[in-house]
TrEMBL record:
This is LLM class flavin-dependent oxidoreductase. Residues 1-22 are annotated as: Disordered. Pfam families: Bac_luciferase. Residues 34-358 form the Luciferase-like domain. PANTHER family: ALKANESULFONATE MONOOXYGENASE (PTHR42847), ALKANESULFONATE MONOOXYGENASE-RELATED (PTHR42847:SF4). Keywords: Flavoprotein, FMN, Monooxygenase, Oxidoreductase.
Length: 401
């Protein structure tokens, strides 16, 4: 058995290269719709205004099934590692936190069409590429090719300390996770037992079987830096970005075209294409004044103590995302705030599409009723605008190949 180098690791075809894969089916939509699940206390919004949003698995299962019924393409979970009490405050923000990897596998077994993505901090603790390659291949088979991993490096210095290690420098983390993912890809290609000696990992006689159904599992990444964009360009099917100009929509929409273009160019430089998505929080109601009043009420009930703790932790890290977001905006949450009646929300989403974005991962304040409002009142408008195609009218693989 020869020992391979980073440059000679094998790369399997991605699921985009299989016209009948669940990812290819989702990508036939003009504009992807995803839901960012509230697997954590408080979801995405640091406000004490009463609501029903809940971190529990039954609640998130109901959300995922409803999103699937409304034609959503993706359900996604965040990962953070926090001490007792989470970010504190009146809400105990993010004190309880379901693991998104395990949750996504469970949700895949309880759904039939929607893609399930789970976040993994690949550089923390006991993870080894052989572990993750095997676990993801298993999840791929459980889900019928609908499972994907959002592989992240982590930015907070306190998180790796929980695992008895220290945080690597920003760009070195991306070097390490690139090597990690490349090893997984070789194992998914399955050409032979893998012998490898690298800077960060080594393997002897490693093999993974069964291999994924469509070349490899779906891969996702999230970043706001050139190193992160380069990683996404090499490995990811979907790259998740934040707004480079804060949560205010009018400011953000001017900055996003160049930002998105940089992400896509990083992939094209490597002969690949990626989809780019962003996370708006939608606050909508039948009329614009009702939506604005709801938005203001959420802001007026800001959980200031938890917001202070959250922003302090973020500033102590070295993330290149969220740099222009206001602390007060955390009461609502999300990379962007979209507020208005159904027509206004649909127009804002069309603006994001025109700015080069391929879809959104939506968050809501009170998830179940607001998801229902979005699905019943806004999805039909997106279909009328040509941004969405009803599931029963999607082109077949033969029509798109």
């Amino acid at each position: 058995m020869s020992v391979r180098t980073r440059e000679t690791l094998h790369v399997p075809p991605g699921p985009q290269e299989f016209p009948d894969s669940p990812l290819s089916r989702a990508f036939r939509q003009p504009f992807l719709l995803g839901i960012f699940l509230p697997l954590q206390t408080g979801g995405w919004s640091q406000s004490t205004l009463p609501r029903g949003t809940d971190w529990t698995y039954p609640y998130n299962l109901e959300l995922t099934r409803r999103a699937e019924a409304f034609g959503f393409d993706i359900a996604f979970g965040l990962s953070q590692w926090l001490p007792k009490g989470g970010f504190g405050g009146a809400t105990g923000y993010r004190e309880n936190f379901l693991d998104p990897f395990v949750s996504a596998v469970a949700l895949s077994a309880a759904t039939s069409r929607i893609l399930l993505l789970g976040t993994v901090h690949a550089l923390y603790g006991p993870w080894h590429p052989l572990h993750l390659a095997k676990f993801l291949a298993t999840a791929d088979h459980i889900s019928g090719g609908r499972f994907g991993a959002n592989i992240v490096t982590g930015y907070a210095d306190t998180e790796p300390e929980m695992f008895g290690t220290t945080r690597l420098d920003h760009d070195l983390r991306y070097e390490a996770v690139d090597e990690f993912t490349a090893i997984c890809e070789d194992l998914w290609a399955g050409r032979d037992n893998l012998g490898y000696e690298g800077r960060h990992w080594s393997l002897r006689g490693a093999y993974v079987s069964p291999r994924p159904a469509y070349g490899r599992p779906i891969l996702v990444s999230a970043s706001g830096s050139p190193a992160g964009f380069a990683y996404g360009g090499r490995h990811s099917d979907i790259v998740f970005v934040s707004s480079p100009a804060g949560e205010d929509f009018d400011r953000a929409i001017s900055a996003l075209p160049d930002h998105v273009a940089r992400v896509k160019q990083a992939a094209r430089d490597r002969g690949r294409e990626v989809k780019v998505i962003i996370n708006p929080t939608v606050v909508s109601a039948p009329t614009a004044p009702e939506a604005q009043a709801r938005y203001q009420a959420i802001m007026d009930h800001a959980d200031l103590e938890s917001i202070t703790n959250f922003t302090g932790r973020h500033r102590a890290g070295d993330s290149r995302s969220w740099l222009e977001h206001s602390a007060r905006g955390r009461a609502v949450g999300g990379h962007l705030h979209i507020v208005g009646d159904p027509d206004q929300v649909a127009r804002r989403l069309a603006d994001l599409h025109a700015a080069g974005l391929d879809g959104v991962q939506l968050t809501f304040y009170d998830y179940l009723p607001e998801l229902d409002h979005f699905g019943r009142a806004i999805v039909p408008l997106l279909e009328q605008a040509g941004l969405r195609i009803p599931a029963d009218r999607l082109p077949s693989p033969q029509e798109t190949s």
